[in-house]
Amino acid sequence: MTDRPLIYPNELPRPAGELEALQAAWKLPRGWRILSAVNNTVIGYFYIGTALLFFLLAGVLALLMRLQLAVPSNTFLSVETYNQIFTMHGTVMMFLFAVPAVEAMGILLLPQMLGARDQPFPRLGAYAFWAYCIGGLIFFGTLFFDLAPSGGWFMYPPLTGSEYSPGMGADFWLLGIGFIEISAIAGAIEIIVGILRTRAPGMTLARMPVFAWTMLVFAGMIVFAFPAVILATIMLELERAFGMPFFIAEKGGDALLWQHLFWFFGHPEVYIIFLPAAGMVSMIVATMAGVPLVAYSLIVVALIGTGFFSFGLWVHHMFTTGIPPLALGLFSAASMAVAVPSGIQVFAWIGTIAAGRLKFNTPALFVLGFLFIFTLGGLTGVMVAMVPFDWQVHDTYFVVAHFHYVLVGGMVFPLFAAFYYWAPAFSRTQLSEQLGRWAFWLMFAGFNIAFLPMHLTGLLGMPRRVYTYPADVGWDELNLVSSAGAFLFALGVLVFLLDAVRNLRPSLTETAGNIWKAGTLDWINNELYGLRSVPIVTSRDPVWDQPGLEDDIEAGRYYLPFTYSGGRETIVTATMDARPDYLLRLPGPGWTPILAALFTAAFFMLLTAKFVTVAFICGILAVTMMLVWMWGSDPAPLPPVDIGKLVVPTYRSGPDSHSWWAMVIIILVAASLYLSFVFGYVYLWTVTPQFWPSPDALPAISKPLTAAALILASSLLLFVGGRWLGQKLGLSVMLLLAALAMWGAIALTLESLWRSGFRPFDDGPSAMAYLALILQAQLALPLTVMAGFTLARQLTGKLDPVRRNVYDNLALLWHYAGAQALLGLALVHGFPRMVG
Amino acid sequence: MRHVPTGLIVLFAGLLAGCQAEQSALAPHGDQATEIAKLAWLLFAMAGAVLAIVLAAVALALHAPDRVRKRLAGSPAVIVGGIAFPVVVLTFLLVYGLSLTASESRGGTADLRVEVTGEQWWWRIAYPGQNGESIRSANEIRVPVGANVEFVLKTADVIHAFWVPSLGGKVDMVPGRTNRLTLRAEREGIYRGQCAEYCGGPHAWMGLTVVAMPAADFADWLEAEAATSLTPADDGAWAGRELFLGAGCGGCHTVRGTNAAGSIGPDLTHFGSRRSVGVDTLPLSPENIARFIEDGQHIKPGNRMPPFRIFSGTELAQLSNYLAGLK
User: Fold this and answer.
1) CA dihedral (B235, B236, B240, B242) positive or negative
2) ipTM (interface predicted TM)
3) Is residue B35 within 8 Å of residue A381, measured between CB atoms?
4) Neighboring chain A residues of B77 at a CB cutoff of 8 Å
5) Distance CA B231, CA A347 (A)
6) Is the CB of A392 less than 8 angstroms away from the CB of B24?
7) What tens digit of pLDDT does each residue of A237-262 get?
8) Which of B43, B159, B172 lies closest to A389 in CB terms?
9) CA B219, B225, B231, B232 torsion: positive or negative?
10) Among B234, B323, B255, residue whose Cα is nearest residue B285
């Protein structure tokens, strides 16, 4: 407990009209125009609603499967339908429910929890949501046209290659999911920059709520994990569409390469889903026990540790593929080590419960249910990390039971706890305690009745992904029980829905408020603009420890109780110590994000359906929409502003700018993708050496050296151009020459490969060499568009030595692309020479 | 089950009712399966203990006197419960698990080598024969009891996994690779296996049978299996043979000793001596053979054999009698 501050940033009374101006700047678009909203609260509602819709849809698929499996030799569903349904169940639950649901909670809660007025890139957030919503609905719709993928959510080739899956289903998976992952990455960028740069003054990293820590680790893991599967989907789609044989053994590809890339993403994915849920649990436990979280620092260390370890476990999905025992041992050890951070969190929660007095309400019940289910799931996780045990239970119902305990226990139960917990912060009334208890006990009982027997079903030899089973093997009763449990669980979800319909009254102005007596900023009255004034935070639980905080915030005594420019604004603070840095002007409602999302979705889906021309028109429209919205960003600097006895600038460039951080994260994404490619290249060399080109078959060394010189020249030209910001001719010429040099290097490398007789569809190594170029072009295309944009800004006088973020961000990505191209050249032209 | 402490047997007696089936990791009949079952019971016991400790800690945190709760509520308790405790348990398990992995990966010297190739959705099988030739069969593997049998595992198309739970763990069959798995059946019996890696379509019906028999019987059987097909015993069967060859069945199937030499589908030279039709979907009988020929797409939907509805009732009976007679 600290005392009330003696001096506040702003004096009372506040001038007349100040609040009205703030409200006007953050006004919600009326009626159907709400679709143009970009504010995090509105987008957050939509986001959670959509994620919940996909949870219900994928849940219905699960019930259909349980009906089919209730009795042996059932013919309720055909083979093909069942195969599509189990593929969609897994895919939708993982990509369209679990990740978006926790991302949505982040978008909705983080600005409130951190004391920001909004996310730092509202339009990007809106775009990410709409892309996911539109793309996801179309993807799910393929089920109704018998066009859904049927290769499993893991999509192992060669089963999913064009030979064994000739239909469009696999393409819908590859392009649809690839695209939704891009949306997840966009959300992750938003979340990272939001957490690192828009925390309330004084909220140092050590004072940040644990939920924000989990979202930071979550978003960081997305940045490093998702690119691997994006690369894999690009490769498989290239194989399917153009015959580049990345995964075809007889042509020097390898089916296991997919599995490595997929699980390098797939295992972190589990923690990507679990960590934010654990963060929600940490928030709820502390509130319901009425005491600060025990062992906060240990929990933060555990979160970061989990993030790291989770990237070293992927091979434990491949213990039966014939991998040598030494590798098995390493990955087995890593898989067990990851249990330790979870142990820390479990005992920290238990310690927190012990430190206070737990209120036995619905959120607490869901948390206790989570503790039981998740612990059991963790224990079976240790079992499957034991290699010989895994040889038996891998791909059986034991594993189905295990990961449902981890995912439903570790994510769905906390999410429902969160719904009951945070509803009063967003709704006029809280959800019903009575219905909540019914929902909990039905879900808890149903879940265990459904999934506990599956452990045994698996040990009795029942494999996964079977659409039916024979009667005489001894699985009949167990399956019937599981099916009954599944319906009981569904009944619990129905009770929740009933509760939501009856009691959830979302409101942006009047909410039930802090009924649990929680200690964090998200419980202080939040309008669309967030808090009335942005407080100075001196504690981890400011509402508990800073007396009068709520009243002072509401009275406008803290920072920025007004709008300076007349538009939306938030305070950007320093990464570590959250000292106010500058005033960020934020965009208001607009149609470009939703339109861009619509056209992006159309581009990918039409491309899948092979309407190439229309697809590309939509693609160009999508880019146009983005350019339109980007044109309005990077506004001209205004005079510095006094936000409350503190004068801050309204414009920053370089590492001080929030946009610089976003670009650095984009570069990390691109680098992860490229490193996955480098891994794939070297990996293929180790497994198919007989297909490797001999050094003398490669293009003469002068070719890649010339290309390298062009790349260096391109970067140099761009750098020199940066010296001439504001001089129209100089920068224009430099941009043009730099772009020419960049494309020249690509063209030269392409020509030299082709002339030397390499064809992308001949064999794995050749396909890889061309893939390096494709990945380079994938950067060169947006860079060219960005260069054109920079040129346009220059010619219209929107770029000068001060107002330079557009150029700086272009230069960052440009130099990165050059470095990546050099690495590619060294790999494709140097590596075979070095080892051959 | 022999290695399991009596207490556990009593405890799990109810559950174990289902474990007597021939496809269960908990009813081991081979060395590897026995070792893994031992490990499994150890893991269950430890998991049970850990779960009990965690639940007890939760109960104490909720209801214990303040003195006890104060002890739970601090970093030291988190370090003991969340770090020290799991590290000790996990280290023990890891050492045990790794040594078992190493010993089971070695396999030992092979007394017999059987090549199994996964196909959508059946198993091509080859035993070593005279003069380096192999003896071809399908879907049912016979092995001598007590022999170390090395399974050489390949695939002709997509990824499959070879798994006979009562004998040991599973190993994937990956394109372009050859994996090996050594199993030893401890006693006579019929053990069911199944493809464990999703391979599309009727993956659910890609069953497999392993028959473990005394070494002498196995030698006799292998000799018979190496021989060409039996000459039909009666006129009906002769007519069936003509129908088989006339209808083009030989385009996909081989019956050694006839013109039928197709290699797309299972070898039928000694089909009548196997236990099932349609890769473990129906018990072998002339009636079931007839059903599969006419209506295989309902019995095993999606399988590669098109329905043959060109035969009259008599013809179908003759054809299936001929096939059932291929002992």
Assistant:
1) positive
2) 0.93
3) no
4) 347, 350-351, 354
5) 74
6) no
7) 999 999 999 999 999 999 999 999 99
8) B43
9) positive
10) B323
